[in-house]
């Protein structure tokens, strides 16, 4: 704003000056990384809660590819979008016998060795901002250990015939065609489990 500068000396003349001040507002680093997908709480854009991740591996078999996880791959972002700091990943808990590793840059979870017991893993994976290690989030990843399926299940019959009575509510029984007193039974077999 212009302001008159006056001097007590009457011989001096009055002068004015103009200055332009530029103020740049930078976003501060206020939020920790968010694992995606996530859900914002009550229209509050500062908090976003992610669901746990889950995956599975076959017992006594080592995958050389990144593990497939639900609801998707491990991925975190800096929610301070104008800063958009780089995120690095690390496993901070639950990694018995160092079976798994995580790529620090991509978040891809891979196996270092085979799993020899059927016990599941509950990993804690941390996403940290590179420029501020105090800005981090931890996600839970449950890895179930399963027996490999060598055979697909198959139905005992190729065609099943049933009868449904008109006007019955949903979830009513379907009866065997030709025998309206016997419920229709559909059976399947899996050669991986011959005794079941």
Number of domains: 2
User: Helical proportion?
Assistant: under 10%
Task: Give the overall shape, derived from the CA principal axes.
Answer: elongated
From the 3D structure, determine the CATH topology of the largest domain.
Answer: Immunoglobulin-like
Mean pLDDT: 89
Backbone CA Rg: 32 Å
Named at the architecture level, the CATH assignment of the largest domain is: Sandwich
Estimate what percentage of residues fall within beta strands: 35-45%
**Largest sheet descriptor:** 4 strands, mixed
Counting helices, strands and paired strands, the structural category is mainly beta
The neighbouring-strand order within the major sheet is 4-10-9-6
Output the number of helix runs.
0
Q: Could you spell the SSE succession in H and E letters?
A: EEEEEEEEEEEEEEE
Unreliable segments of 5+ consecutive residues: none
CATH class of the largest domain: Mainly Beta
What's the end-to-end separation, in Å? Answer: 88 Å
Subcellular location: Membrane
Domain Cadherin: 51-155
GO molecular function, one term: cadherin binding
Main location: membrane
């Amino acid at each position: 704003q212009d302001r008159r500068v006056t001097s007590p000396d009457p011989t001096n003349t009055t002068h004015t000056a103009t200055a332009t001040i530029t103020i740049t507002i930078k976003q501060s680093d206020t939020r920790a990384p968010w694992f995606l997908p996530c859900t914002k709480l009550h229209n509050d854009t500062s908090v976003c809660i992610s669901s746990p991740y889950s995956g599975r591996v076959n017992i006594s078999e080592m995958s050389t590819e990144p593990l497939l996880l639900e609801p998707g791959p491990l991925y975190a972002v800096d929610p301070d979008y104008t800063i958009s700091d780089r995120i690095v990943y690390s496993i901070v808990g639950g990694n018995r016998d160092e079976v798994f590793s995580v790529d620090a840059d991509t978040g891809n979870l891979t196996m270092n060795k085979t799993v020899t017991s059927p016990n599941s893993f509950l990993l804690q994976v941390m996403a940290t901002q590179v420029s501020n290690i105090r800005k981090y989030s931890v996600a839970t990843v449950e890895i179930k250990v399963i027996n490999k399926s060598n055979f697909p299940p198959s139905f005992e019959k190729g065609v099943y015939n049933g009868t449904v009575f008109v006007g019955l509510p949903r979830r009513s029984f379907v009866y065997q065609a030709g025998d309206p007193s016997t419920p229709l039974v559909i059976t399947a077999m899996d050669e991986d489990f011959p005794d079941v």
